[in-house]
Amino acid sequence: MTAPVLVVGEALVDIVSNGKPRNGRNGSKATPGGSPANVAVGLARLGVPTELVTRFGTDPYGDQLGAHLFGNGVQLAPGSVDPGFRTSTATATLDAAGVAKYQFDISWEPPALKLNRGCPAVHTGSIATVLEPGAEAIHQFLTGLADKPVTVTLDPNARPTITPDPVSTWAAVRALAALSDLVKLSDEDCEFLRAGSTPDEIAAELLTVDRTKCVVITRGGDGAIGVTRAGRVEVTAPEIQVVDTVGAGDSFMSALIAGLQARGLLGAARLEGLDEEALHAVVDYAVKAAAITCTRHGADPPTAAEHTSYWS
Fold first, then answer.
1. What would be the CATH architecture of the domain defined by 5-310?
2. Residues 6+ apart with CB under 8 A from 298
3. Which residues does the UniProt record annotate as the domain Carbohydrate kinase PfkB (predicted)?
């Protein structure tokens, strides 16, 4: 049996509000979320065994998270459920185009981080990589993977409300990117972290480090680009009716990892053999997974069967 992909990072509850009163209420709805947790769910739905290292409580929000993760087949690492921990939340307000803006009530300190034998990939990102004390634990963990046969992927998923200083945040991203084989950013990440630089300039900057072999940058409705030292691909996004964008980037990330695993590019391979044809295929698969999520409310990534049937 294939060892699970290891995802490290926050699990929280998204309190999504469109700002429109509904039956005398403000239209808010609490749904399971957190970028790493969303990636873990997305991977599991795509048929990739997945273990999540996170921390949440046994309060009502924590019970909701646990039911969601278990119900989608995500394994939880020991210590991830902590009765003494208050489950974190993120309040997401949707604008007229369905684009979400977030405010967070979060603390982050992961349980012990351990690499299981045969693990093909470790993914981390978002708030967990910048919020102490957990951020340092993740940095130390990734540092220890330098000589291990595992592929490391990173999605910084910048949150200016958590880390308002782009200079120090970019320094932290660069430090983690140097320990990662693949880095995925959004155009919003690029605008905040490296204002005035083009996506290709940012990709080139990250690819100067030996460990980093691929940079993928999403561009919302304009699709995504993938860049390696050997080439560059550009994938357009299909036309869809957007409901909201909550979790779209996480669906993209999970599909990207799943696509790489399907082509045997994870584990000790560490993306060796990722040519332009393979890169275009996996980025296209990820763009289409994100598009499906945008047609639904909240962070609701597609299953493998839904992905196939939707685009057939």
1. 3-Layer(aba) Sandwich (3.40)
2. 14, 16, 29, 31, 33, 244, 246, 247
3. 5-302
